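Researcher: We're teaching a course module on how sequence relates to structure. For the next exercise, students receive a sequence and then see the predicted structure as tokens, so they can try to spot secondary structure elements on their own. Here is the exercise chain.
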Amino acid sequence: MDDMSLVDNLIKIYPVTMLGIYLHAVFLSITLGAPFVIICLILLWIRSGNGLYLRAIKTITGVLVINFAAGAVTGTLVEFGLVQAWPGMIFIISTVGLVPFTLELVAFVGEIVLLVLFIITIGKIRPIWSISIMSVYFIFAAFSGAVITSVNSWMNVPWGTGEYMRLFYPFLPSFGPVVVSEESLLTFRAYLLSVGSASQIIQDQTASQLVGKFLHDPFVALASPYNLVSVLHNVTAAIIIGMSIILAGYTYSYIRNKRNETMTIIRSFLPILVVLLVVQPVVFGDLMGKMVAAYQPTKFAAIERIYQTRQDPLLGFLAYNDPNAKLLGFDEMLERCNELRGVKLGERLSYALKIPVEDSVYQLDLGEICRRDVLDAQSKASILNPTYYVKIGGGVAALIGALGLMFTLYNLGPLSSIVRRLIKLLGERVSMSILVVLVLVGAILSATIGWFVREVGRKPWTIYGYIYPDEVITPVPVDTSILALFTAVFLLIGAVSLTAMYIVSTREGKFSEILRRTNKNE
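Model: And here is the predicted structure for the students to work with:
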């Protein structure tokens, strides 16, 4: 398959893949956010003994069950799509992804068991045991998200490859200790440049055997410092979105029905949401930015539009804790690429390749490849810079909305008085609506754009500095009707699931009624 056909496949498949991932992320967010709200409600129930809170617990649990099922279905479809549409990803799944994906399967089973156990025991055992069950359920759910994130983190920062990437891109940092086979790395890279598709190597048993053992430490994806920060950042973002969705639902209910009990429910978990909205940018966001600056120079330069190497006291302090730090620009990266001008790929191979590679591949000029990729990354700056700061703005909007609600619902001194006067001036319905929209839209916008920046910022590589997207995508011509079918299925799952969650959340006791009918049928 020629290069133009691969590009055509990329254009067709990429949007559908992103749709599936983002839809799955919505369900994952509710999975991680709902346990916090449920535990807060159980504590309210213990303290008051009010059956209202038990009903609210069952309602949110019903939403969680539907959401979990939808998340499982979309997750399965996304993974199926990765293998089918991006068959070269099997290279990642079978090496650095083997341990994380195995652990994710264990965590998924644990989630199912604990969610079922919570459903059948809530209200029938001591509340403290219900809190314990839901807490362990959350641990499994968060662990599942963490190990999946670890694979994506390795694709962003291929930890364990040491100085290898610097052979081709001299401006890149060292990616930790070497836990991969240099011979396997270079053989795989050279063969990819020759055949153009990882799936062709995987399908060729002889070629696969000759590439040999790639990885010496199957836990390497979990050991990366970039991954640790990514997990904290991504999981917290998902919790914030999940709690924001529930907050929006209860605020809508309060505006419609004016029930004081509804406001009590909001008060029970709102402080946790505010704390997370503060910790996310101040701690986890700051750490994430420092990791990007340290390990992804092309992404950092694109986000901040650093075309010329320079000093910026504020940015230097934020990125490196050093106001005098030099900020590496695309100009210096290109100069470093010039160091490889005239260096042929064959000169980087310190041994004879066992796999037959086209002679022209040995003659590839590494300096030209380096320049091409840096210029490709630089072209993303016009997209990444504004979207990154929109992401920051979304986080600020969410925090402002949450603080506005806090000052409204709690007596926090003069600021509460000022906010309450503004609410009286605008009207409670309008004010509450504005504040909750700021929280919900701001949180979703920030997380969604954040993932966009993470993925686009990694380009032009699928594995940073190593493998390109067109090398992992299917070389088989894609039928647009199949993609249309997948798109329709994703949208249908989303529509049906959200409708079912809305019905359960707005018709109190609906989930309990479904459970009673199910038990009778059994």
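Model: If you want an answer key for the exercise: The radius of gyration is 25 Å. Strands lie at 161-162, 175-178, 310-311, 326-327.
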